[in-house]
Fold this protein.
Amino acid sequence: MSDSINKNEIMNLLPHREPMLLIEKLINIKKLFSATAIVNVKKDSFYVQGHFPGQPVMPGVLIVEAFGQAAAALTAHGIDKTTYENKLVYLMSVEKARFRNPVVPDCTLELNIEAIRSHGRVWKYKGEAFVKGKKMADAQWSATIVDRK
């Protein structure tokens, strides 16, 4: 397994596409355990125009979505392809989400995620989001792998 995967490789693992594919790459991958996801928060990101005009901020819910995408990519990258083929990963719960500082464009958001445990098709994760070493948000969440209809 490589230590990092790019956006094209992520698109082979996840069903997300532009504009909802938020993560650019996964780096520092420790198989099925942890990784760092890179999110480029740009002035022309789809959510900037309306959230908030003149003072754009990345919505907290999209930071949580990026956490989920990073976790799904980490898991799919680490497991056998037949396990996730024709499957989707759904968020089940979000716990302890805290938004400490606003994430404003243009910046690189680094999401450090870790798989805490897995039981069958249910996985639990935790993550912290940073811009230039400053903590912006953190959360814990659970997700499950389900059959694609």
Notes: The chain has a mean pLDDT of 94.
